[in-house]
Write a structure and sequence with these properties.
Oligomer: homodimer
Order of helices and strands of chain A: HHHEEHHHHHHEHEHH
Helix content of chain A: 25-40%
């Protein structure tokens, strides 16, 4: 009996050793669960994330375009804003966005907190102002109490709002994909085809930009490196932030985590399928024409990057009070 | 010890007797939890309820206008449809809608299943067609498998879609409001003011229409009985269904369950607050001008009708496949 226990312990220890070795050797690391989380802020941030009263219309919330039922995106090429305005760029996924080196395709926000205030006040998105949004929140007694509980202050301000939303977003990581299980030592987590796809992904050079825990998100790179990318949208990426001509068409490399769920692809959402995206990337970024078989293997690998999706209780929002300013969805 | 158990049993029994007596004597009955539920259909229906791919734009789902975070409504006077079209009438709450004698303000759908197909194909709402919606669902392998599991058929059809959504909606009842606790024998569940409000609600005649488990929803009544109701919307209610002139301005009496959450009020959403709604109803339906104090008491009673809100895990929707027709949010 004692021997059995010791053997089991040795097996477990060697399993642990195995579990840690592959990740260390590979250019992609497993997604870690969120740490140092303030649960009070998370619960408040979740409500705010789902609350359309942060928009002029009372209809658009963060979750409208970064829909947590759909890979943290809206699955359309460009988002729908106030009055059905067409957005200028594809909505990036909110999943694992805490791992990005900066937020937005051009990295103009340094972190999630800086990002969260943007869409609320963007006339083409939620079309509100921070002042009006705070006015709404301060008129809702249950929000006033919850902000006070979480932040210990008598007044709500936009810094608290964006901090709470960012804290909630930090929890939106997707560990435990089959690929991560493989990285952590579960050798049969991937099929032969998927492993061949991963080998191609590395050997062809995709991994030069798509690496790290998020398989991307950690650098800006030129879209159209070998061949220019022809886009129907005007966005020129990083140069809008730096003012440098050299940064034209430099975009943040998107994460490939959950990429099966985050179609359509690229900053303009022009590629509807992974097959098309892999083909375009090969040609434009690597000067490489993947065969149909190679493409299918890479796609098979990419689909192993889908992790555990957020397991959320839908928040119940506190009701407006008699003094809450009402949304104006149809006023121009 | 034995005596204690017997005494406890007697207390429980008498508690039970008490629990059943008030409800039987009152014109309002407690909300019952859902029974005879097919959980496979419910889970499928929940996904469909949250899936914007049932709309032309890929942006609007059932939950957009019947938002389960917000009392099963959108909290705006009239809903936003495809291309930001303004809806003709206020979106009624989906909560406890299984208790309604018919669906829609004019009762044109006999039950939830008949209702569920309406918005999908309404050009002013989701602006899709049943055929196109089925085409989308049939292109998504995980949906194909789930429909087959639930309905045992090889083909998906609109009858299955609406049956699943209706089954999910049957679960959206809100028992356990403070008022129901009182009905069931918890004598201290209501304050003196709330009880006085309930007495006024009964004695003034509100209860003539707002009765039963849903506190409404079980008859059609004329809006503007004593004084005509002046509305900015064109809807004339039940006459659109019956063709009878006598039915003009007859609308389904809305449920008052969760009425604190389902603002704005009336078929045109013209009343922003409960105070205003109670005042208007008193004058137009009962020929009665409530004092400020009476009005406040009735409002206090109405707020005790908020029950347990749906406690839902946000569904994760199965991804589209390469062959799924893509939404066309910006195509006219």
């Amino acid at each position: 009996m004692k021997r059995t226990i010791i053997s089991a312990a040795i097996v477990m220890l060697s399993g642990l050793a195995l579990a840690q070795t592959p990740a260390a050797d590979e250019p992609i690391q497993p997604i870690q669960r969120a740490v140092n989380i303030d649960l009070g802020m998370v619960e408040l941030g979740k409500k705010l994330y789902f609350d359309p009263r942060l928009s002029k219309s009372g209809f658009i919330s963060c979750n409208s375009c970064h829909n947590l039922s759909m890979g943290g995106t809206d699955n359309i090429p460009s988002s729908i804003g106030d009055q059905w305005q067409q957005g200028p760029i594809n909505a990036p996924t909110v999943l694992n966005s805490s791992l990005n080196l900066a937020q937005f395709w051009d990295g103009r926000a340094g972190d999630l907190k800086a990002q969260a205030g943007g869409p609320i006040a963007n006339p083409g998105e939620m079309a509100f102002t921070h002042t009006l949004a705070i006015g709404v929140l301060e008129s809702i007694p249950a929000y006033v109490r919850e902000f006070k509980l979480v932040f210990g202050k008598d007044k709500i301000d936009i810094e608290q709002v964006t901090a709470a939303i960012a804290e909630f977003e930090k929890t939106l990581v997707t560990p435990n994909s089959r690929f991560d299980q493989w990285l952590l030592g579960k050798h049969d987590a991937l099929t032969k085809t998927e492993l061949e796809g991963y080998a191609l992904f590395k050997d062809s050079g995709c991994v030069a930009c798509h690496n790290g825990a998020a398989v991307g998100g950690n650098s800006f790179q030129k879209m159209g490196l070998v061949e220019p990318y022809k886009s129907s949208v005007a966005a020129e990426g990083r140069s809008a932030v730096t003012g440098q001509d050299a940064d034209r068409f430099n975009f943040k490399v998107p994460t490939l985590r959950n990429v099966e769920l985050t179609y359509p692809y690229f900053h303009d959402g022009a590629a509807n399928t992974l097959t098309e995206a892999v083909d375009t990337m090969g040609r434009l970024q690597l000067g490489k024409k993947f065969t149909k078989e190679e493409n299918a293997k890479i796609v098979a690998f990419l689909k192993t990057l889908t992790g555990d999706q957020p397991n959320l209780i839908l928040p119940i929002l506190p009701p407006s009070s008699d003094s809450t300013p009402r949304p104006t969805p149809f006023a121009k």
